[in-house]
TrEMBL record:
It is found in: Cell membrane. Pfam families: PMT_2. This is 4-amino-4-deoxy-L-arabinose transferase. It comes from Gracilibacillus halophilus YIM-C55.5. InterPro entries: LipidA_mod_glycosyltrf_83, RgtA/B/C-like. GO terms for cellular component: plasma membrane. GO terms for molecular function: pentosyltransferase activity. Its main location: membrane. One of its GO terms (biological process) is response to iron(III) ion.
């Protein structure tokens, strides 16, 4: 029985995952409100479905956070389950960091063997920046996990020649787009090249599958943005950090080209092109909401 157990489970991997759990989770319960800009959004999203769907930054639902919704939806669900605490909004990122360690092992093992897979998982577990970002409520840890999941699906689909698994890989990248917009697309050149070189089918089927996968990618990527942009402006919050009150403009502007050129402003200023009065109003709103959330965490009724 013991031999069967140890043959099915890689004990060193279990130890590495436990190490990752310790590094990612230890003492996070002392965090009170971490990144208050994002915690403010989670607090507002807990108020009602309108704020939840639009990722509203304030309780009144007048302006959105400057990122797409998926990570904040997960953080809000965690806060609804465990209560709004610093650790409850960090928890999804900490778990994602642990998941990335496992995925790194799974990705490396088929091609390079168990030893290389263990070393890769260990490197992922103890890399300082990976640990640091997994101990915050910033988006990056969950983004990395999602993109590694997409990579695993692509490898699996190519290896087994499963068309739908390949399409699923691109669909997951579309979900990642709804975490941090164009930054999720940075892996696509490698995806396309690997697919074209490794998928053992004739060119007609290759192009057909790739076209379908790309269509799914774009539909999932843009679904939330298109829904929000088609809703009348007086029935939804202002899109934070955009110039034109458009999620698509936010994706390709403040969270797209501006990330490459460095032409960015602070949260809510639309890269410096919005009216100064609007900028000040949004900044004041953020300060007021952050004050409210800090009070809720520090002085909530027991």
């Amino acid at each position: 029985m013991n031999k069967r157990f140890f043959s099915r489970f890689d004990v060193p991997l279990v130890i590495i995952v436990c190490l990752a759990a310790f590094l990612n989770l230890y003492n996070i319960w002392t965090e009170e409100y971490v990144n208050t800009y994002y915690t403010t959004a989670v607090a507002a999203m807990m108020e009602n479905f309108h704020n939840f769907f639009f990722v509203s930054l304030d309780s009144a639902g007048s302006v959105t956070v400057d990122k797409p919704p998926v990570t904040f939806w997960i953080q809000t669900i965690s806060a609804l389950i465990f209560g709004l605490e610093g650790w409850s909004v960090i928890l999804p990122q900490a778990i994602s960091g642990m998941g990335s360690v496992i995925l790194m092992y799974i990705l490396v093992k088929p091609s390079f063997g168990t030893i290389a897979a263990r070393l890769s998982a260990l490197a992922m577990a103890i890399t300082p920046v990976a640990v640091a970002v997994s101990r915050t409520n910033n988006i990056d840890s969950m983004l990395v996990f999602t993109l590694l999941l997409a990579t695993w699906l692509l490898f699996k689909g190519i290896r087994k020649q499963h068309t739908w698994t390949i399409i699923g890989a691109f669909a997951v990248v579309g979900v990642a787009f709804n975490m941090k917009m164009l930054q999720a697309y940075m892996i696509l050149p490698a995806f396309y090249l690997f697919y074209l070189l490794a998928f053992r089918q004739n060119w007609k089927k290759k192009i057909g599958v790739l076209s379908g996968a790309t269509a799914v990618l774009l539909v999932i990527s843009l679904s939330w943005a298109v829904i929000v942009d088609t809703i009348p402006e007086d029935q939804r919050p202002f899109v934070g950090s955009s110039d034109t009150n458009s999620v698509l403009e936010l994706a390709f502007g403040y969270n797209g080209a501006a990330r490459l050129t460095g032409n960015q402003g602070g949260p809510g200023d639309g890269g410096g092109n919005m009216r100064q009065g609007t900028i000040m109003e949004i900044r004041l709103l953020v300060i007021l909401e952050q004050t409210k959330i800090i009070k809720r965490i520090h002085f909530k009724e027991k």
